[in-house]
Design a protein that fits this description.
Helix content: 55-70%
Strand order of the largest sheet: 6-7-1-8
Structural class: alpha+beta
Distance between the termini: 27 Å
Number of domains: 4
Low-confidence stretches: none
Mean pLDDT: 87
Radius of gyration: 36 Å
Length: about 600
């Protein structure tokens, strides 16, 4: 749900803004709208400092230091020293790699003496070094030139020619042999070990850089917030406006009263466009990241996250459609808890994995194997989805039913929100369509279940149709002629019917994706069985395991991608469109110390 916000209007003398911002940062609850980009030279300098520190931290974190390296103590400002250390670390690594490549190339030619090559050249017998693809080398060249093949393999042939020659593939005359370069490499490695010792010392001081970066972030945030002041009374006064959740009103007021600032607090209104803060339980909170991908609602709107949390989980599980894949996702989620950069997403991945296990069991599929045929599950076979429902594929029927429920819920939310925002009389058009479609679905379901008899169903349908038609046609827009409303209602009917049909059919993707993943997994299983045969040859178990593991790994990756994108689309397009959701709000971002 959207947390109620309190508006704070601050009035203070010019020059007191730093004191106010310090107090608000310590409180960590008040959001003052501010730019997310630099606004002047000072803020640009702070951003540059943050980027520099961020680069140094990432560079030191990526620098690989062998275990057991004894750090060499470095004294002074780590920010100024780390750049030079990283530069030497990178330069030495590049140079050593280049020397190693040269050594590998020169070892082909053997341990020659470059001085002798120069003397031969001065005596009129230059030595030419050649390297050619083996297919291009012609052995009869040895009859025409004083040629000696040094080495050859399937791809290249290396040879030398004494005296003048015009053969292709000539390379520059080496100035050093492999032995000399190996000595240079040893000297460079000795210097590199000294650099590694300094890198190890610098890595130990990463927390200093992180602390300085956090201070710069806080300073930038505070400065940008301070720049939003509105001057008054010939620049002698400054005014600021901030917002904080109403539930923290006592804490914020106590801090401001203690600091002695003059402020006015009042309930935030829609016209103020306050930042949006969500107040959800732990389960729903995991899915707020998905809502933020689309955008937060207006202050008088509704929080779609509770709906997304349930239906995205269900849709994802239907697209994966395999209990075995769900177990893999749970293991991946548990592993992500140990990775700092992905730790926050770990609970969501585990939850999606659990949902996939439950739905996969309902669909009786485990690594693309139909577990309904296993004897151990015969007693609980009544829990499995039937292969056929009314002559159609069970998965397809289930997808359509889920889609209809999703759309009916969206339309119900739209009607409730319309009445809440615009009033009952101004929402008759929306209420008419909701009554017709949602009521019709409920009546149809009750009739199919045998709860309503045919005569009663007929009467209820007629009543729903008449009541809905009044709102859809003559009274769909308040203050407008019934004739005009009726004409526009016809056009709205065409758009609604055709659009709703397309929306319902769009949910077939849940069945299609689950079916595609299951069939591809079955294909890998069948290929594995073909390789294994009757299982009597123990050696064939190795390719069998490799084929099945690699195949299902690729299938899980592809299924997970589709299971993320398409359920997101169904929520962002079908649900949001039919619920009237609009992302007009800003994320609540309180001024706080980093």
């Amino acid at each position: 749900m959207i947390a109620p916000m309190t508006k704070y209007s601050f009035i203070l003398l010019s020059g007191m803004q730093d004191s106010l911002m310090d107090t608000l940062q310590e409180t960590g609850l008040v959001d003052i709208s501010r730019s997310s980009k630099p606004v002047d030279d000072h803020s640009r300098e702070l951003v540059a400092e943050i980027e520099l520190l961020d680069g140094l931290i990432k560079g030191l974190q990526k620098a690989e230091v062998p275990e057991g390296t004894e750090p060499e103590y470095i004294d002074g400002d780590i920010e100024h020293l780390a750049g030079g250390i990283l530069m030497r670390y990178s330069d030495d690594a590049v140079e050593m790699e280049a020397i190693r490549k040269q050594i590998h190339q020169l070892k082909i030619w053997g341990n020659f003496n470059p001085d002798i090559l120069k003397k031969l050249d001065q005596a009129g017998v230059p030595i030419h070094f050649h390297s050619l693809p083996t297919k291009q080398f012609k052995p009869n060249w040895a009859d025409e030139y004083p040629l000696s093949v040094i080495d050859t393999d399937k791809t290249h042939t290396w040879f030398v020619v004494a005296g003048e020659d015009s053969l292709p593939g000539e390379i520059p005359l080496p100035t050093q042999n492999a032995a000399q370069l190996e000595k240079d490499l040893m000297d460079r490695e000795n210097h590199y070990s000294h650099v590694l010792a300094r890198v190890a010392s610098a890595k130990a001081r990463i927390p200093e850089l992180e602390e300085k970066r956090a201070r710069c972030y806080s300073e930038l945030d505070k400065y940008l917030a301070g720049c939003t002041a509105v001057p008054a009374a010939e620049d002698t006064l400054l005014t600021y406006v901030g917002y904080a959740p109403t539930e923290s009103e006592e804490e914020v007021s106590a801090k401001l009263d203690q600091a002695g600032f003059l402020y006015i607090k009042e309930e935030a209104k829609v016209q103020d466009n306050p930042p949006i803060s969500f107040k959800n339980n732990k389960f729903v909170k995991m899915f707020e990241v998905l809502t933020d991908m689309y955008g937060r609602p207006a202050y008088n709107g509704f929080d779609p996250t509770p709906f997304i949390s349930v239906f995205f989980l269900l849709f994802f599980a239907l697209c994966m459609g395999d209990a075995g894949y769900g177990l893999i996702l749970i293991l991946i989620g548990l592993a992500l808890k140990k990775v700092d950069s992905f730790k926050s997403l770990a609970p969501l991945v585990v939850t999606l994995g659990i949902g996939t296990v439950v739905v996969g069991f309902f669909l009786h599929t485990f690594f693309s194997i139909d577990i309904a045929k296993w004897e151990v599950f015969k007693p609980v076979s009544f829990l499995f989805l039937p292969d056929q429902i009314a002559g159609y594929a069970g998965g397809m029927v289930l997808s359509l039913i889920v889609g209809i429920i999703h759309l009916c819920l969206a339309m119900s939310v739209k009607a409730i929100e319309a009445v809440k925002v615009n009033g009952f009389s101004a929402s008759l058009g929306t209420l008419g369509w909701t009554t017709l479609i949602v009521g019709g679905v409920i009546v149809g379901a009750l009739a199919l279940a045998g709860v309503l008899s045919a005569p009663v169903t007929k009467i209820v349908v007629i009543v729903l149709g008449v009541v809905s038609a009044i709102g859809i046609f003559p009274l769909n827009t308040k203050g407008r002629s019934p004739v005009v409303n009726s004409a526009l209602g016809l056009w709205d009917t065409y758009n609604t019917v055709t659009g709703l049909l397309g929306d319902v059919l769009s949910y077939l993707r849940l069945y299609a994706l689950g079916l595609a993943g299951g069939m591809l997994g079955m294909a890998f299983n069948d290929m594995g069985k073909m390789v294994l045969g009757d299982g009597s040859n123990a050696v064939l178990w190795i390719p069998f395991v490799l084929l099945v593991v690699i195949g299902h790994t690729l299938n899980i990756a592809m299924c997970a991608l589709g299971a993320f994108v398409h359920p997101l689309r169904l929520n962002f397009l079908e649900f949001f469109k039919n619920s009237g959701y609009e992302a007009k709000g800003q994320v609540y971002n309180p001024l706080r110390k980093q």
